[in-house]
Every structure is written in C-alpha cells, then in structure tokens.
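Chain A, query sequence.
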Amino acid sequence: MSKGIILGMELRSAAREALVLDEPAAKAQAAAALLEACRGGAAIDPDVSLPPLPAGPGRPPRPRLVDPAALPRRSPFTQEGRATLLHAVAHIEFNAINLALDAVWRFAGMPLDYYRDWLRVAAEEGRHYGLLAEHLASLGHGYGDFDAHDGLWAMAERTQEDVLARMALVPRTLEARGLDATPPMQQRLRQAGDLRAVEILDLILREEVGHVAIGNRWFRWLCERAGREPTAAYAELARRHRAPRPKGPFNLDARRAAGFSEAELAALGEGAANPRQP
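Chain A, predicted structure.
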C-alpha cells in the first residue's frame, strides 16, 4: 500500500487495506501514512459500509503461534534471553497496530474524533514496533525468530460485534496490563545493562498511557450513550467475554494518568485478591 493510494482513499477503507498487509514494517509505514493523511484532511466516513475481512489481519508466516503456557520464561541476563523478552514486546506492538486499525474500520457510526484517535494509536504502535525490531537486530535476531501467542487478537475476535466491549476489554484491560508490566521489565533490563531497551520502553510506556486513556475516553462515552453505569458495565462485559483476571502489582500512577477512577482502581485490587471463578 503506497502513500499515494492511502491519500486517495477514504481512511476507514484505507485502514482496512492496511490491516491485511502481511509484512510488519510495511504495516507500520502504512499506519504512519494514514495518520499523516488524516492530519492533512483526508476524508473519514463514519457510516461507510465495509465488507467483513475474509480472514484475520495480515501477518508474516513467523512467529509460530502457540499456547501461552508453552512459552519459556524470559531472562534478560543473556543476549538470547533479552532478545526473547523484547521479541515478546515487539509481538504485542505488532498486534497493537492491528487492533488500532481494526478499531478504525470495523466500527461505524462513531464520532470523527474516535477514528482520529485510533489512527494516531496505530501510527504510534507502528513506531514502537520499529524501535523494537531495530534493537532486536542489534542483538542478532528479527521478528519471527521466537514463538509467540495470540491472546490480544483472540479478544479482538470475541469483541468484534460490540464496540463497547472492544473498548472495555482491549485498551483498558489487555493493553493496560502493559502499564503494570513495563516498570518491572525495565528494572530487569537495567540490571542486565541493556539501557537502550530501557529507553525504548520509557517511550512506549509514556505513549501507552495515552492509548489506554483513549480506550477509557470512548468506553465512558459509549456507556453514557447507552445509559449504562461504567463500573457495572465493565464487570458484566468482562464476565461475558472471559476477560483475564487482574494480576498485580498494579502501576497505579500510570493507570490514574490513563484515566482510571479511584473506584475502578479499588475494584481492580479486589478482583486480584478475589479472582472470578471460571
């Protein structure tokens, strides 16, 4: 997908075309071009009817996708271990490009700012992926060298018919877990002497706070439109769609910056202490 083609397309349609690209770097470049086109005034039609995808998002033949339990523990204290750990983060960022592009094309009838927000997220996730891929190369590896799992996209499939569920359970649940996991990961990488990886994760964490905030913004907007109380709506959606149980410790400062209320943070802690039964 060339920049010229994107500039000639309605942007929700172009996001759908970008989503099916297989090559991660090309997808990241397309996401950046989409954001540039958006900022340049390219058309967004909230009501355009787009056909369903014949398959899932485009992805390269590797990495091999396995059950999360089959993935090895990742120690940062060897070069191979650091590469495995950072590969896992790169896989999350690649999937996050897909999730943002999917949020743009799939859900019609939202305000224009919704689509602008998620186009920005897609471009930023693409930049995150590129930084991690570059650092992986410096460690002698590339994306696809290690196994990965498909948990993020599995939740996208479970919420594909309901934008409220998507906002509740992808950005403000699965992606919010990255806010909690990143500081301990940075501490281990710092101890291992990989200061470039720590620097990259600093950038990612700052921007991921904004991405989770976008999820919170639109979740609350949708709750208000539907006349639903957000805390109760979230609990019901988490049960219905089998969202993962919360696991601490939680990065409360980052979650507050991303727009979680004190009541939501208290409920998060209660959920971790008293997990739901399957």
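The CA atoms of residues 25 and 130 lie 7 Å apart. Residues 273-278 have pLDDT under 50 and may be disordered.
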